[in-house]
TrEMBL record:
<dbReference type="InterPro" id="IPR012967">
    <property type="entry name" value="COMT_dimerisation"/>
</dbReference>
<keyword id="KW-0489">Methyltransferase</keyword>
<feature type="domain" description="O-methyltransferase dimerisation">
    <location>
        <begin position="17"/>
        <end position="99"/>
    </location>
</feature>
<dbReference type="InterPro" id="IPR036390">
    <property type="entry name" value="WH_DNA-bd_sf"/>
</dbReference>
<dbReference type="GO" id="GO:0032259">
    <property type="term" value="P:methylation"/>
</dbReference>
<dbReference type="GO" id="GO:0017096">
    <property type="term" value="F:acetylserotonin O-methyltransferase activity"/>
</dbReference>
<dbReference type="Pfam" id="PF00891">
    <property type="entry name" value="Methyltransf_2"/>
</dbReference>
<dbReference type="InterPro" id="IPR029063">
    <property type="entry name" value="SAM-dependent_MTases_sf"/>
</dbReference>
<feature type="domain" description="O-methyltransferase C-terminal">
    <location>
        <begin position="121"/>
        <end position="329"/>
    </location>
</feature>
<dbReference type="GO" id="GO:0030187">
    <property type="term" value="P:melatonin biosynthetic process"/>
</dbReference>
<comment type="pathway">
    <text>Aromatic compound metabolism; melatonin biosynthesis; melatonin from serotonin: step 1/2.</text>
</comment>
<dbReference type="InterPro" id="IPR001077">
    <property type="entry name" value="COMT_C"/>
</dbReference>
<feature type="active site" description="Proton acceptor">
    <location>
        <position position="258"/>
    </location>
</feature>
<protein>
    <recommendedName>
        <fullName>Acetylserotonin O-methyltransferase</fullName>
        <ecNumber>2.1.1.4</ecNumber>
    </recommendedName>
</protein>
<keyword id="KW-0471">Melatonin biosynthesis</keyword>
<dbReference type="InterPro" id="IPR016461">
    <property type="entry name" value="COMT-like"/>
</dbReference>
<dbReference type="Pfam" id="PF08100">
    <property type="entry name" value="Dimerisation"/>
</dbReference>
């Protein structure tokens, strides 16, 4: 590590200290979302004092002032002094991504990170020692029952579906346009959850039919909480591991394979290959690791999260190519988007 650091960093480890404090900064943002700080400031017609925010949100003034000051320090809020008194206002970034009402809101993603992922990561040491997820220690549920843990209550299901919805509202357009998919007239998003990615695909390729296939309780919840006016996508109840998969020209597996061990991934890809129309294909959406183990850091962190929460991991492109070839697919194309998630297209 030292060989990659500047002399100034060796003299005083600023970067390391930033890393050490990273979890605290995350929790500041999470806490502000949970308390409703960003929604209050967005809806306010003027900057608010710490006293004003605390009164509206029923918190202590001292605690709120400290929280607001950190948010100013990390450029998420702005502050101005009037006669020596601080008044806080929201920034464009906070309004766009952190307030609930924004079309690009990441609020649901943050709630899931704070209330589900954060507790799991308290047990990272045990996950590394044992080589298995920490669902039993964190939530009292068998480590083999991954999605029974994720969907352990209606509240938890809504949190997870909100996370996935936020993910594809943010990244869906980059995935939909990673390749020209106009030639695929029918698409099925397997495990498509809330339908957010399917909607991006449908908007980009209006001449193609797009169907979300997921577990019955997920589809029922999606219809109840996540449908939009003038929806052009369809929802279908099913289990792509144990049930039938409808025929289609293109199957989408977005953040699905990384949940499972490789043999189960190949088994699913073989099943999809059998159902796939001739000339059709499969689109994988995953956070691709570099082949040389040097990043991307976000994908590496995601991979560690898969250890803590599931039975899977993130992979470099070569690993996915091998899985696809083993299942009978060919002409594997890779697209790194430069964002959180990448795309792999393979044909039958």
């Amino acid at each position: 590590m030292a060989g990659h650091l500047s002399q100034s960093e060796l003299d005083y480890p600023f970067k390391l200290l930033d890393y050490f404090n990273g979890f605290r900064v995350s929790k500041v943002i999470f806490s502000a979302c949970e308390l409703g700080v960003f929604d209050l400031l967005l809806n306010s017609q003027k900057p608010l004092s710490a006293e004003g925010v605390a009164q509206e949100l029923s918190t202590s003034v001292d605690g709120m002032e400290r929280l607001l000051d950190v948010l100013v320090g990390v450029d998420i809020l702005d502050v101005e002094l009037v006669d020596g008194k601080a008044y806080y206002s929201s920034t464009d970034v906070a309004n766009l991504y952190l307030a609930k009402g924004s079309v690009k809101s990441l609020h649901d993603m943050i709630i899931y990170q704070s209330q589900t992922i954060y507790p799991l990561w308290n047990n990272v040491v045990d996950a590394v020692r044992e080589g298995k997820n920490q669902n039993e220690k964190s939530f009292g549920i068998s480590p083999e029952e991954i999605f029974q843990t994720i969907y352990r209550s209606e509240e938890e299901m809504l949190k997870f579906m909100g996370l996935m919805n936020s993910t594809w509202v943010l990244d869906g357009q980059d995935i939909a346009t990673a390749f020209n998919l106009a030639g695929f007239r029918s698409m099925v998003d397997l495990g498509g959850c809330s339908g957010a990615l399917a909607r991006e695909l449908s908007k980009t390729y209006p001449s193609s039919s797009v169907t979300v296939l997921d577990l019955p309780k997920v589809i029922q919840t999606a219809r109840q909480h996540f449908t939009e006016q003038n929806d052009t996508i369809m929802f279908q109840e099913g289990d792509f591991f144990d049930g039938d998969i409808p025929p289609a020209d293109l199957y989408i597996l977005a953040r699905i394979l990384h949940d499972w061990q490789e043999d189960k991934c190949v088994q699913l890809l073989k099943k999809i290959h059998t159902c796939c129309q001739p000339g059709g294909g499969v689109l994988l959406v995953e956070a691709l690791l570099f082949e040389n183990h040097r990043g991307p850091v976000m994908a590496q962190v995601f991979s560690l999260n898969m250890l803590v929460q599931t039975e899977g991991k993130e992979h470099p492109p070569s690993q996915y190519s091998n899985m696809l070839s083993s299942a009978g697919f060919h002409t594997v194309q890779i697209c790194r988007t430069g964002k959180s998630y990448d795309a792999i297209l393979a044909l039958k």
